[in-house]
Design brief:
Length: 296
C-alpha cells in the first residue's frame, strides 16, 4: 500500500526544457543509397528514430517531455506519398512545439520547412472522438531524398510511468534509440524499471547528460495481419515504470504478494449459477476429466 501512497505524488506536471540540437550531419551513404538496407521491398526506411523521454519536477508540478527526431530515406513513389506528409496527434493535455523539418537532396542541398507550412488541424473525427494535432508536408520531396523532422511533445499531469516505448513501427528502421531521464526524488524511494516484450535491447547505459539510452538496429516494419493476436503480443516494445526500492527478504516478499493476490481474486473465484450451468452443459455426457477440461 505504501507504493500507491507514493504514486499519489505524481499528479502535477511542469513543462520540460528542450535540449538545444542542430541537425545531425547526413552521411554520404544516406544521400547516395538507392536500395533499402533492412527490407529489400521497402518503399522507405527510417535511418534513425530517436526519442528523448524526460520526467521533471519543478516546485510541486511534474511534466513529461518527449523529443522526437526522425530521419527517413525515400526509395519509391509510394514511400514519397506515405512519408512526405507528417501528422502529429495531440491527445488530452498535450502540447506540440519546436517543430522543424527539412528535405535533403542526394547532392547535399537542403530545403527547409517554413513555419507557415505547419498547421493545426483536426486529424480524425468519428462519433464521440476528435483528434487534433499538427501536420505539415515536407518540402519538394522526390525519390532518393532524405527527409527529417523533430518536435517536442509535452504532457501535463503525466509521468512516463507505464509508458510503452515502441521499438517497431510501420517502417523498417536502421536504428531506433530511446534516451530516458527518470525523476530523481530523494524523498521518494522510486527507481525507473524497464520490461521488454518481443525484443532484446541492450541494457540502458548512462550518458554524460544524465540520460540513459539503449538502441536496436535493423528493425523490420510492424505489419498488421488478419486474425493476429493483440498488437502488444507481436510488436517489439518496452514497458517503463516506477517501482519502490525494497530490501525485503524474497521469501517474505512473495509470501505477502501471494496473500494480497489471493485476497483480491478470492471474490472472483466463486462460481455462480450461470457458470455452473454453463459448465454442466458443455461437459454433458463426458466422463473423462481431460475431455471435460478440453470441452471447457
Amino acid at each position: 500500500m505504501r507504493i500507491y501512497a507514493y504514486l499519489l505524488v505524481f499528479l502535477w506536471l511542469a513543462p520540460a526544457q528542450m535540449r538545444p540540437a542542430d541537425w545531425r550531419p547526413v552521411g554520404t551513404d544516406e544521400l547516395t543509397r538507392k536500395t533499402p538496407k533492412v527490407d529489400p521491398g521497402a518503399d522507405a526506411e527510417a535511418i534513425f528514430w530517436d526519442v528523448h523521454v524526460e520526467d521533471r519536477l519543478q516546485g510541486s508540478n511534474f511534466s513529461l517531455s518527449l523529443i522526437h527526431y526522425v530521419r527517413i530515406k525515400i526509395f519509391t513513389d509510394r514511400g514519397k506519398e506515405k512519408f512526405a506528409t507528417v501528422e502529429i496527434p495531440r491527445l488530452g493535455r498535450t502540447s506540440i512545439s519546436d517543430v522543424a523539418a527539412r528535405t535533403v537532396k542526394p547532392d547535399g542541398s537542403v530545403v527547409e520547412l517554413t513555419k507557415e507550412s505547419i498547421f493545426d488541424r483536426e486529424l480524425l473525427k468519428t462519433k464521440g472522438l476528435k483528434v487534433k494535432g499538427k501536420t505539415f508536408a515536407l518540402p519538394n520531396v522526390e525519390v532518393g531524398d532524405v527527409v527529417e523532422y523533430r518536435y517536442r511533445e509535452t504532457h501535463e499531469d503525466e509521468t512516463a510511468s507505464y509508458m510503452h516505448l515502441l521499438f517497431q513501427r510501420d517502417i523498417p528502421m536502421w536504428s531506433v534509440t530511446y534516451h530516458l531521464k527518470p525523476l530523481q526524488l530523494p524523498w521518494a524511494p522510486f527507481q525507473m524499471r524497464t520490461l521488454p516484450f518481443q525484443c532484446h535491447p541492450p541494457a540502458f547505459h548512462r550518458e554524460p547528460d544524465g540520460f540513459y539510452s539503449t538502441s536496436l538496429t535493423d528493425v523490420p516494419a510492424f505489419r498488421e495481419e488478419s486474425d493476429m493476436p493483440p498488437e502488444e503480443q507481436v510488436r517489439a516494445w518496452v514497458l517503463i515504470y516506477y517501482e519502490a526500492e525494497s530490501k525485503a527478504d524474497p521469501d517474505k516478499y512473495w509470501k505477502q504478494i501471494g496473500k494480497e493476490d489471493f485476497s483480491n481474486f478470492k471474490p472472483r473465484m466463486k462460481a455462480d449459477n450461470l457458470v455452473k450451468n454453463t459448465a454442466a452443459e458443455l461437459t454433458s455426457g463426458i466422463d473423462a476429466s481431460a475431455a471435460k477440461l478440453s470441452a471447457l
